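ESCALATION

Customer reports they have been waiting on this structure for their group meeting. Please prioritize. Original submission:
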Amino acid sequence: MKKREQSSLFITLDSLVPLDHPYRKLDQLLPFSELNQTYQSLYSLNGRKEKGFEFALRTLIIQFMEDLSDREMERYVQENLACKWFCDMDLGEKAPDHSYFGDFRKRLGTLRLMEIFSLVRGSLQGMGLIREVFTFVDASQLVSKLTTWDDRDRAIKKGLDRFNNETTGKVAADKQARFGCKGNQKYWFGYKEHASVDMQSGLINKVAGTSADITDAEGFRHVCPAGGAVYADKGYGLKSVKTALKRKGCHDATIKRNNMKEKNHKKDRWLSAIRAPYERVFAHRNKKVRYRGLMKVQFQVGIRALVFNLKRLMTLGVDRITLCHT
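Update from on-call: job pushed to the front of the queue and completed.
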């Protein structure tokens, strides 16, 4: 017993985390200390003891990497040794209350988060990992977890004839959520995520969140690359998209609609085959909305895109991102 007790004194948190654990790679990949210098003012050095920006950012990345709620994240930080190591905690240190994670999201805000995403994206461009030569563009639904039945009942009580996109802002719990439709088969209530992916590296180049009633073509302007060939489905086969592509100097590689004169079935089958690997990746992503309101949904799609890129970079074997401050 004495030998066991004596040996346990030399056990450290670092020794309990395997050398090949993904969190070790993630720790080296993103220069957290550089980001901390820019955003450390979000936490005051005076008053009650706080962990600071770097700790909060690390927990945010882990939360979305593991797809955890705030309460699940509190337990994960408390029980997972690798997570404690990654967040630079002591072995016996208690995890912050679940309200801590929501508080940090408020402090950081959507605009600052997108600043960080843009900074990392610019750095990846500088490293030659995002080149905008071939770009995959698509949009996917984000389904609100709020039930629409209560909203419909409120519409009836208010004497409204219908509960649709014209009236949902008056009665829905989430005033900015809307009904969306894709291909006359998929209907949902919530939002839409638009993304463009560099097809050479598989990294997300641009991302944007909109209400569900915004069409793919309307949302294209948010994620249009600066050049190169753009591969998109039939939803982008409109004149407005063609105009945007021409203005940016992009090559139109969108799949044409059946009623278009320039429709080429063989070419479109070839384009569909090229797009297929990227469509499969996005098809398996979580499509549930975490928060209410468009700005918070933009926060969700922004941090998910950042985490997606970090995971992709680890797969590609990139050791470290060299931040390029502009």
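Sent to customer with the following note: The two ends are 59 Å apart (CA to CA).
Escalation resolved.
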